[in-house]
Amino acid sequence: MRFPAEWEPQSAVLIAWPNADTDWAERLGEVEETYIALVAAIVRYQPVLICVADDDVQAYARARLSSARIDMACVHFIEAPYDDTWLRDSGPISLRDGEGFRLLDFRFTGWGGKFDASQDDLLVERLTEMGTFSNSTRQSIDFALEGGAIETDGAGTLLSTWQCLHERHPQAGREEITAKLAGWLQQDRVLWLDHGYLEGDDTDAHIDTLARFAAPDAIVYQGCDDPADSHYGELQAMAAELAALRTRDGQPYRLFALPWAQPVIDENRRLAASYANFLIINGAVLMPAYGDAADAEAQAVLARAFPDRDIVPVPCRSLIWQNGSLHCVTMQLPQGLVAG
Description:
alpha/beta, L-arginine/glycine Amidinotransferase, Chain A, globular, Peptidyl-Arg-deiminase_porph, hydrolase, protein-arginine deiminase activity, Porphyromonas-type peptidyl-arginine deiminase family protein
């Protein structure tokens, strides 16, 4: 059994369409434009599965996507209830298990009880019962863990932040949590970061907003080169931690620092505009773009980190209003997990 890296071949990407009953209601038109752009980018390379709350939401989403001239042959809808659209954290964590898959269904608690998550916590079970996934079994695990909190290189090394896991499980020590994650996720190394955070992030420092594997020997991370910025000290300390990490064969990781976008302020609240929240798909990396001068530099950095993939910017300024970005609203499904 093995936890595949995100860059391995995929069947599809799983998302959930925003609607008036989610937290997007106040700015629904803006976020729909982002979702249309996201779906358009995905279907250039592979299928997309879209969860919809009911028939009306499906009909509306289909009409919006069709009017944008998206290839609907690559778009598939699944009707299932959900509280919100952050499927990185409520979707399945897929392990390859022989010729099939084991879908790990951890507890989703709305990031430590910050938001209602009763429907989201049932999503993997419901999708499994509906026959969404092929050749797989679901393993329910009574432990709070979100997909955005973990990164794997596909070869047994896990990267995470201690702040997030400690916040979810304050009574458990690092040794205990390390052993549990290694066991469930089939990892033999767990690397912890003790520094790094983003204002406007309510996940308690998910790793997918901070540092990401680009290869077994490479990490892309969110840098900050502005000493006047409130993030400077923490992100510089995180960069030093990353520089001190070693690969399985004892070598330093190749590190790629992403540029720092100018502060995005919304109603006196700073939003978490991280370029590290990218999504790797078949043949491409989808990059969150914020309409900032640093977007072009971020695209160039990702092109160096992923030289064999297209780098496709997706406008994500609307997503950070709800404290997440592109990777947060998606979950890749490994090749073979979805039939067809």
